[in-house]
Every structure is written in C-alpha cells, then in structure tokens.
C-alpha cells in the first residue's frame, strides 16, 4: 500500500495551518493543542518537543503514548486524507 505524502511531512510544518484555521473559526491555539493532546495522549511538553524536532506524522502517531479510543468517531478529510481510514488503526 502506498502511503499518502502527509506521513512524511513534519507535524510542525502543518501545525501553524491548524492554528490559523482554528483562529479563523473563532478558536484558539490552546484549543488546537488540547485536541492534539486528546487524540494522542502527549503532554504539552511532549507535543512541543515533537514540534521542535520536526517529527513526521508517521512517527508522531506511531510514538503516541495512547491514541484516544474515541478517535474512530472522527470523520472528514484533512490534507486529502480521509480520517476514518487512518484513525481506526
């Protein structure tokens, strides 16, 4: 199976776009961080370390302390990737 190019992109390269989109919708950077922590189980310090290290998405999710079991309820497309396909793993 060929992996989507997002897997090799760093989380840090996409993160500012998440924040910008959230702010356009009246949300905050803190809320974006909260969602990422909810999804992955990372602490704020761990999240910041991965952003600083330029960790790619594949590694970021593979090393996540505890993916939230409710992640399968997330629906939609992010960066051309259907979330229902990848978040059930």
From TrEMBL:
Domain of life: Bacteria
InterPro entries named in the record: SP1917_dom_sf, UCP033199
Gene3D superfamilies recorded: uncharacterized protein sp1917 domain
UniProt protein name: DUF2200 domain-containing protein
Organism: Lihuaxuella thermophila
